C-alpha cells in the first residue's frame, strides 16, 4: 500500500486519472514542454511519454480510431460537405466526427496541463469518491469503453457503414451471402448488408433506450417524490397505482397498448417510458421518506420554502445516486424490451433497421442464413452486458448499501 | 397463518379490480370499436347499429364498465371474434399449457440457479467462480427470443443436418402420432418438446437466481454459527448443506414472486416462437387478429396469474420466516 491514506488525498481527481494503487492516487509530476508538444501533435503521446500507460493508450486509440474515418471514407465526408443539400443524417455524422476529434484532443491537452498543477485543497464529495471507486472496477471500465465505441459508431454510422442499409443491389446475386470480406456479417434476403444495418440499428436501439429511460426516470422521480413527501392519501393512491402497474407484466401491457394504436417510433418510446417508471418511483419514495425527516429539510421548511422548491432543490438531488444506477441498468433492459417488441412486429417498423426487427427477419431464414439473426442478437447481448457492467460498477461505487 | 393468507387475499381484490379497470380504459381509449372489423359497403348502417346495440356499445361508459366488470367477475369473458367460440372455452386448455411450460421452467431455474450459486459461493474468487459469473451475466443480458432462435438453429435444424442422435422438436407440444403412444412414450415426447422452450424461457432467470444464491450463501457463511459448526469438527459437507444452505435458501423463496411475471412475459415470445399453444401465443394471435375480447381476457388472466404468484411467494415466505406473519 502507498503511504498516503485516502482520506488525506486532497486533490480533485480528473476524469482520466487512474489511481495506480488501491486507496491512494500518486501525486503527478509536472509535464515537461517536450511531453506537452508531443501531446499536442498526437493526443495520448504526451501521457505515454510520462509512462501513464492506461490513459495514454485510451487517448491514442480513440484518436487513431477517429483518424481512420477520414482516411477510409474521406471522399464520403467531402461529398457531404460539397453537397448543396446534404441529408441531415450525414451532416450530423460529420459534425459529430469533428466534435469527437476536438473532444479527444482537448481532453488529452487539458490532462497534460493539469498534471502537477497545484490544486486548492478541498474535501472530497460523494461524487469524487464514487468516481475513484468506479475507475478501479475494471469490468465497469471495459463496459463503459465498449458503450463509448458503440455510441461513436452509431453517431458516425452514415460515414462508417460500408453500404447503404436499405440498398438492395442485384437481389439475385447479392441475397443470402454468408459473411465474407465484402460483407463482414453477410447479407439478408433482400441483399442488404447486415453490418451496415447493425450499425444503423444501433442508432435506433440506443436512442430508444435513452429516451424511454429518460421519460421513465422523470415520471418515476416525480411520482416517488410527491408520494414520499406528502404521504397520507396522496401516497396511498400513487403507490396503489404503482402496484397495479407492476402487477401487469410490462411486455403484455406494451403489446396491448401498441396494438390498439398504430405502431410508430414515437409511440414505442412513449409507451416504453410510461411503463418503466414504477421501480424508480418506489426507490425515490423510500429515499425521500427518510430524507424528509432530516434537519436540513426542517431548516428549509423553517425558512419558508415552498414544497416544490424543497422537493426539487433539496430532496431530489439527494436521491440521484440510486436513480443513476437504476437508469443505467434500465437502459439495457429497455433495449431488450424494444427488441422484443420489434421482433413481434409491434416496435420499429421495417424498412428502418432495429436490432429486434432484424432478428425477426432472420427467423424466416434460420437454416439458409444463420448470420441474419445471429449478429444483431450478439449486438443486443454485448450492449446489454455493457450497460449491466456499468450499472453494477456505478452501484458498487455510489451506494454500498445496494450491493448484493 | 390462516389469518395472514386471508388478509393477503383480501388485499389482492382491489388489485384485480384495478387491473380490470385499466384494461377497460385502455380498450376504450383506443380509436375504433369492435364493430369496425365488420364495416363493409355491403352491410347497411342499420345492421351495424343493431350490432352495436346488441353488444351494449350504445350505453353510457359507466354502464358498459359495470356490466363488463360483472360479466368478467362471473367468469363470462365473452365471445372470441377470431376463433368464433366463447372465450371461457378457450382459456382452460391454454392456461394449462402455459402453466406446464412455466412450471418446468421454474424448476429448471431454481435447480440450476441454486446449484450454481452454491458452487460459486463455496469456491469464491476461484477461476470457476469468475467464469460462471461472466457466463451468468451473458445469459442474463440475452434476449430470450434470440436465445430461442439460436437453440432452434443449433439443437433442431443443424442437429438434424449434422445427424446428431437427439434432435429436439422446434415447435408444437406433441409429435405426430402422440395419440397412439404408451404413457411412458407420451411423457418422454412431452419432455422432449418442453426442453428447448423451457430452456429459452428460464436460463436468463437461472443466471439471476445463481447471482442471488451466491450472495445469500456468502452472507450466511460469514456468520458465527458456521464458524462454530466448523470449529466443532463437522465435515465441510455437513456445514455447507445442513447449516449454511438451509438458511441461505430463505431469501431465494421471495424470488419466486419476482420471476413469475418475468416468466409469463417471456412466455409471450417463447410460446410464439415455439408455437406452444399457451396464453402468450393466444394473446399475440388475438392482437394480430384484432380480437379485442380475447385480448382483454388473455391480458386479464395473465395479470391475475402474476397477482396469484406474488401472493404465493408472500405465503411461502411467511411459512419459512414466521416473523413476517406478525407485521
Walk me through the structure.
With 404 residues, chain A is mainly alpha-helical. Helix content of chain A is 68%, strand content 0%. Chain A is built from 18 helices and no strands. Chain A has helices spanning 33-41, 45-49, 53-82, 88-114, 126-136, 138-155, 157-160, 171-174, 194-230, 232-247, 250-260, 265-274, 278-291, 295-302, 307-315, 320-343, 355-363, 370-398. The two termini of chain A are 27 Å apart. Chain B has a two-stranded antiparallel ribbon with strand order 1-2. Chain B has eleven helices and two strands. Chain B has helices at residues 2-29, 45-55, 61-73, 87-122, 127-140, 144-162, 183-221, 224-231, 236-274, 279-288, 292-320; strands spanning 79-80, 85-86. Chain B has two domains: 2-73, no CATH class; 91-326, MetI-like fold, CATH 1.10.3720.10. In chain B, strand 1 and strand 2 (85-86) form a beta hairpin. In chain B, helix 4 runs antiparallel to helix 9 (236-274) and helix 9 (236-274) runs antiparallel to helix 11. The longest helix of chain B has 39 residues, at 183-221. The mean pLDDT of chain B is 84. With 327 residues, chain B is mainly α. At the A-B interface, helix 10, helix 11, helix 16, helix 17 and helix 18 of A face helix 1, helix 5, helix 6, helix 7 and helix 9 of B.
Amino acid at each position: 500500500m502507498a503511504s498516503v491514506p485516502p482520506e488525506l488525498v486532497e486533490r480533485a481527481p480528473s476524469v482520466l486519472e487512474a489511481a495506480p494503487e488501491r486507496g491512494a492516487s500518486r501525486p503527478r509530476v509536472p509535464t515537461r514542454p517536450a511531453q506537452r508538444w508531443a501531446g499536442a501533435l498526437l493526443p495520448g503521446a504526451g501521457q505515454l511519454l510520462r509512462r501513464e500507460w492506461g490513459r495514454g493508450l485510451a487517448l491514442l486509440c480513440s484518436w487513431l480510431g477517429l483518424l481512420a474515418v477520414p482516411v477510409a471514407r474521406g471522399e464520403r465526408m467531402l461529398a457531404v460537405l460539397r453537397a448543396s443539400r446534404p441529408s441531415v443524417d450525414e451532416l450530423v455524422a460529420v459534425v459529430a466526427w469533428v466534435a469527437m476529434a476536438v473532444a479527444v484532443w482537448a481532453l488529452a491537452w487539458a490532462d497534460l496541463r493539469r498534471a502537477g498543477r497545484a490544486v486548492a485543497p478541498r474535501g472530497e464529495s460523494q461524487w469524487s469518491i464514487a468516481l475513484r471507486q468506479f475507475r478501479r472496477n475494471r469490468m465497469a471500465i471495459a463496459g463503459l469503453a465498449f458503450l463509448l465505441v458503440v455510441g461513436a459508431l452509431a453517431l458516425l454510422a452514415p460515414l462508417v457503414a460500408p453500404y447503404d442499409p436499405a440498398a438492395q443491389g442485384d437481389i439475385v446475386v447479392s441475397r443470402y451471402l454468408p459473411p465474407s470480406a465484402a460483407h463482414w456479417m453477410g447479407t439478408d434476403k433482400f441483399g442488404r448488408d447486415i453490418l451496415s444495418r447493425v450499425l444503423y440499428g444501433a442508432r435506433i436501439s440506443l436512442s430508444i433506450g435513452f429516451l424511454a429511460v429518460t421519460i421513465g426516470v422523470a415520471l418515476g422521480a416525480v411520482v416517488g417524490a410527491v408520494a414520499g413527501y406528502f404521504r397520507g392519501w396522496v401516497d396511498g393512491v400513487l403507490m396503489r397505482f404503482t402496484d397495479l402497474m407492476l402487477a401487469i407484466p410490462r411486455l403484455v401491457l406494451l403489446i396491448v397498448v401498441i396494438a390498439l394504436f398504430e405502431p410508430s417510433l414515437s409511440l414505442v418510446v412513449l409507451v416504453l417510458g410510461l411503463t418503466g417508471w414504477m421501480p424508480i418511483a418506489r426507490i425515490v419514495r423510500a429515499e425521500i421518506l427518510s430524507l424528509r425527516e432530516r434537519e436540513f429539510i426542517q431548516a428549509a421548511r423553517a425558512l419558508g420554502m415552498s414544497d416544490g422548491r424543497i422537493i426539487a432543490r433539496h430532496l431530489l438531488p439527494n436521491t440521484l445516486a440510486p436513480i443513476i444506477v437504476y437508469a443505467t441498468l434500465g437502459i439495457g433492459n429497455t433495449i431488450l424490451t424494444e427488441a422484443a417488441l420489434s421482433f413481434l412486429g409491434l416496435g420499429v417498423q421495417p424498412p428502418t433497421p432495429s436490432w429486434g426487427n432484424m432478428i425477426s427477419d432472420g427467423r424466416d431464414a434460420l437454416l439458409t442464413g444463420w448470420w441474419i439473426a445471429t449478429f444483431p442478437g450478439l449486438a443486443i447481448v454485448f450492449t446489454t452486458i455493457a450497460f449491466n457492467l456499468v450499472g453494477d460498477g456505478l452501484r458498487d461505487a455510489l451506494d454500498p448499501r445496494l450491493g448484493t | 397463518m390462516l389469518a395472514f393468507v386471508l388478509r393477503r387475499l383480501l388485499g389482492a381484490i382491489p388489485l384485480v379490480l384495478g387491473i380490470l379497470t385499466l384494461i377497460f380504459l385502455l380498450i376504450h381509449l383506443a380509436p375504433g370499436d369492435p364493430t369496425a372489423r365488420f364495416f363493409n359497403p355491403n352491410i347497411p348502417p342499420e345492421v351495424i347499429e343493431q350490432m352495436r346495440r346488441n353488444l351494449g356499445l350504445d350505453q353510457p361508459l359507466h354502464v358498459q364498465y359495470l356490466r363488463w366488470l360483472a360479466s368478467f367477475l362471473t367468469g363470462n369473458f365473452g365471445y372470441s371474434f377470431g376463433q368464433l367460440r366463447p372465450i371461457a372455452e378457450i382459456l382452460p386448455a391454454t392456461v394449462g399449457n402455459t402453466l406446464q411450460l412455466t412450471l418446468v421452467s421454474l424448476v429448471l431455474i431454481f435447480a440450476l440457479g441454486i446449484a450454481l450459486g452454491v458452487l460459486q459461493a463455496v469456491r469464491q474468487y476461484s477461476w470457476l467462480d469468475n467464469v460462471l459469473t461472466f457466463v451468468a451475466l451473458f445469459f442474463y443480458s440475452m434476449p430470450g427470443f434470440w436465445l430461442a432462435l439460436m437453440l432452434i438453429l443449433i439443437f433442431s435444424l443443424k442437429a438434424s443436418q449434422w445427424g446428431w442422435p437427439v434432435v429436439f422438436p422446434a415447435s408444437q407440444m406433441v409429435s405426430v402420432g402422440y395419440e397412439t403412444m404408451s404413457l411412458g412414450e407420451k411423457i418422454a415426447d412431452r419432455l422432449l418438446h418442453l426442453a428447448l422452450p423451457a430452456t429459452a424461457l428460464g436460463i436468463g432467470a437461472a443466471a439471476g437466481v445463481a447471482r442471488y444464491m451466491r450472495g445469500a450463501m456468502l452472507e450466511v457463511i460469514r456468520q458465527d454459527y458456521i464458524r462454530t459448526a466448523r470449529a466443532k469438527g463437522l465435515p465441510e459437507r455437513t456445514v455447507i448443506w445442513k447449516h449454511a444452505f438451509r438458511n441461505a435458501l430463505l431469501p431465494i423463496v421471495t424470488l419466486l414472486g419476482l420471476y413469475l411475471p418475468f416468466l409469463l412475459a417471456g412466455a409471450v415470445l417463447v410460446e410464439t416462437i415455439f408455437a406452444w399453444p399457451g396464453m402468450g401465443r393466444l394473446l399475440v394471435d388475438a392482437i394480430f387478429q384484432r380480437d379485442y375480447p380475447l385480448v382483454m381476457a388473455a391480458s386479464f388472466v395473465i395479470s391475475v396469474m402474476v397477482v396469484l404468484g406474488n401472493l404465493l411467494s408472500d405465503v411461502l415466505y411467511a411459512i419459512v420466516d414466521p416473523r413476517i406473519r406478525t407485521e
